[in-house]
């Protein structure tokens, strides 16, 4: 053998080779191994000696992946010299798999010359409506699906359909993407911010009830990162106070809430009306922008549909003030190709989340995502928390360190809405939102998408732990 490779399986010895044609590194010591995604692969964590040039030899920690030709024998050992292709969101492989279908779908739209509205949009809405039903669930009624141009418009249109306007108040979480609050301000209403739970990242229902006034026109919970807010409590408040609930499901499409006591259903269909986004990075994403609303209320659906089309239900007749917010046919055609695979996409994310859990579960100082017992989780993001007391800048330094190793991360979100310059006029004090403030300084989202491999995740976590150990000393 060209290398003194350690024995990690019975005969034959493993033969090292390099993926990119260079002389493979010498393996000094095997530190541990994990099985891969199936029975034909394993990932080995090894200390290796790498010749970087003729006169310089360095030692480093790296990962080795080998394939098992059949049970009990090993055909080859592949050294992964680099993993520079780790992405926060990787759409290329998914799009490659579906490319032929997507190209055909786009071609059909081009041939039809119907680029706005038309059959592709109608069919997508009907298919999404079917998809949102829970097989065997109590409510087998099909929801109305109203398409629009993007997720932000979906929120604004939903609020407009409910009559939100100047002088009204709308309760939203302080820890969310800006669009949740932005649309309230654009309508001349006042965003009323409340804190979130530090474990689920979702809206605090006790804070919601305390914030209700005679001016409260709507409550907007955000099902953040992939799992549902406490919809049982929110809907009890909604019914008792007669305040509609607009669910922001941009990050949680297809998640299910079930409390075992009569409140159950898909995210977005438990409240008065739900909204979502088809931004490319979403679990169901198009190749541009798109959004939708869904509701069981026929009159509300009709109003939302009219508002999205300049306030009219037929051409040149406008009975409401509206917007020009329509899902174009090419995006609908792409979404129709991807929709049948949505369950598969979500399962891949859930599988990746379980692997992260296993790799990170024993790391002191890092908390893995909490699972709400009454909700499924579709993992739009896999968001860990860096424990407080380890330094104010540790999270940011950790993100920068991983960036140096070619590993992207996301900080969702670096500050609460109450600290955003555009909303300082709301007059909130920083200490009114202790959980939001804590999360803004401690959350870190790791790469999460359908194409993640065990090797990539192991590499991500190894570098994460390495930097975390170094920086937290």
Question: How would you characterize the overall build of this protein?
Answer:
- By secondary structure, the protein is of the alpha/beta class.
- It folds into 3 domains: 16-79, no CATH class; 94-340, Type I PLP-dependent aspartate aminotransferase-like (Major domain) (Aspartate Aminotransferase, domain 2); 342-471, Aspartate Aminotransferase, domain 1.
- It is 32% helix and 19% strand.
- It is built from 13 helices and 17 strands.
- The protein has helices at residues 92-97, 99-112, 119-132, 151-161, 179-186, 205-211, 231-241, 298-308, 329-338, 342-360, 394-404, 434-442, 454-471, and strands spanning 16-18, 26-35, 41-53, 56-67, 76-79, 144-148, 169-173, 190-194, 216-219, 246-248, 256-258, 264-266, 273-277, 291-295, 366-367, 382-386, 443-446.
- It has a 5-stranded mixed β-sheet, covered by helices on one side. A 4-stranded mixed β-sheet has the order 6-14-13-10, sandwiched between helices.
- Helix 3 (119-132) packs parallel to helix 9.
- It is globular and about 70 Å long.
- The protein starts with 15 loop residues before the first strand and ends with a helix.
């Amino acid at each position: 053998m060209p290398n003194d490779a350690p024995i990690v399986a019975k005969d034959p010895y493993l033969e090292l080779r390099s993926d990119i044609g260079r002389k493979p590194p010498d393996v000094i010591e095997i530190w541990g191994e994990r099985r891969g995604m199936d029975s034909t692969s394993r990932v080995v964590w090894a200390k290796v000696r790498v010749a970087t040039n003729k006169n310089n030899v360095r030692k480093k920690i790296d990962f080795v992946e080998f394939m098992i030709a059949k049970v009990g024998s090993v055909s080859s050992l592949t050294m992964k010299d680099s993993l520079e292709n780790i992405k926060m969101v990787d759409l290329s492989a998914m799009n490659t798999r579906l490319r032929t279908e997507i190209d055909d779908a786009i071609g059909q739209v081009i041939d039809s010359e119907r680029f706005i509205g038309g059959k592709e949009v109608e069919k997508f809405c009907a298919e999404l409506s079917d998809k949102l039903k829970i097989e065997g669930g109590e409510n087998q009624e099909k929801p109305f699906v109203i398409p629009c141009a993007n997720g932000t418009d979906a929120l604004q249109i939903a609020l407009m359909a409910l009559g939100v306007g100047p002088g009204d108040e709308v309760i939203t979480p302080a820890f969310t993407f800006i669009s949740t609050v932005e649309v309230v301000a654009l309508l001349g209403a006042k965003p009323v911010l409340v804190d979130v739970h530090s474990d689920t990242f979702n809206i605090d229902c006790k804070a919601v009830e305390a914030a209700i006034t005679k001016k409260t026109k709507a409550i907007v919970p955000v099902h953040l990162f992939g799992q549902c807010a406490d919809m049982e409590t929110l809907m009890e408040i909604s019914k008792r106070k007669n305040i509609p609930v607009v669910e922001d499901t941009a990050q949680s499409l297809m998640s299910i809430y079930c409390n075992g006591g009569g409140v159950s259903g898909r995210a977005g269909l438990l409240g008065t009306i739900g909204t979502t986004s088809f931004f490319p990075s979403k679990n169901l994403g198009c190749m541009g922008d798109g959004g939708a609303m869904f509701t069981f209320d026929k009159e509300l659906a009709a109003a939302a549909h009219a508002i999205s089309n300049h306030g009219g239900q037929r051409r040149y007749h406008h009975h409401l003030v509206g917007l020009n917010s329509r899902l174009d046919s090419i995006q609908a055609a792409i979404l129709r190709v991807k929709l049948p695979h949505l369950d598969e996409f979500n399962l891949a994310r859930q599988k990746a989340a379980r692997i992260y859990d296993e790799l990170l579960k024993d790391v002191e100082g890092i908390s893995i995502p909490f699972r709400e017992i009454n909700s499924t989780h579709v993992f739009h993001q896999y968001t860990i928390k860096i424990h407080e007391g380890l330094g104010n800048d540790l999270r940011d330094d950790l993100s920068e360190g991983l960036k140096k190793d070619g590993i992207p991360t996301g900080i969702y979100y670096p500050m609460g809405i109450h600290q955003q310059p555009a909303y300082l006029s709301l007059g909130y004090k920083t200490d009114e939102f202790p959980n939001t403030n804590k999360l803004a300084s401690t959350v870190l989202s790791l790469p999460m998408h359908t194409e993640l491999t065990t090797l990539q995740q192991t590499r991500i976590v190894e570098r994460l732990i390495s930097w975390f150990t170094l920086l937290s000393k």
